């Protein structure tokens, strides 16, 4: 079960990027904010698809976490990837020049 209060799934104003709440700018992924926004969208999509209301979100939250189910596959995938120069998982593209062909 996810350790997320139902109220925080629906109220994510403080997780949105805005001039008064800028994105993290220290070169690291703001995984807390990303996970919170993802969970918010997943909850709304689940409610719409299943015609459920906010009072029924505990049903969604009782589901097993992804890594509880897919741990072996995720670890195998990560172990099979080539790390970036800094030891991370991804290589990032920078200074990309996109031009429209004539």
How would you briefly describe this protein structure?
With 102 residues, this protein is mainly alpha-helical.
Structure commentary:
This protein has one domain. Helices cover 44% and strands 0% of the residues. The chain contains 4 helices and no strands. The protein has helices spanning 6-10, 31-50, 57-61, 66-80. It is extended, with a radius of gyration of 18 Å. The chain starts with 5 loop residues before the first helix and ends in a 22-residue tail after the last helix.
List key phrases describing it:
mainly alpha, extended, 44% helix, 4 helices, 0% strand, 102 residues
Write the topology of this structure.
Blueprint: H1 6-10, H2 31-50, H3 57-61, H4 66-80
Count of spatially separate domains: 1
Major β-sheet annotation: none
Low-confidence stretches: none
Decide which structural class fits the backbone.
mainly alpha
Shape: extended
The residue fraction in helices comes out at 40-55%
Q: DSSP strand (E) fraction?
A: under 5%
Order of helices and strands: HHHH
Average residue pLDDT:
81
């Amino acid at each position: 079960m996810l350790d997320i209060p139902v109220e925080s799934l629906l109220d994510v104003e403080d997780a949105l990027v805005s001039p008064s709440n800028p994105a993290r700018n220290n070169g690291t992924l703001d995984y807390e904010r990303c996970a919170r926004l993802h969970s918010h969208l997943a909850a709304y999509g689940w409610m719409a698809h299943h015609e459920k209301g906010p009072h029924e979100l505990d049903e969604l939250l009782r589901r097993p976490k992804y890594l509880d189910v897919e741990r072996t596959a995720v670890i195998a995938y990560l172990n099979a990837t080539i790390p970036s120069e800094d030891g991370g998982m991804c290589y990032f593209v920078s200074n990309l020049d996109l031009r429209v062909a004539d």
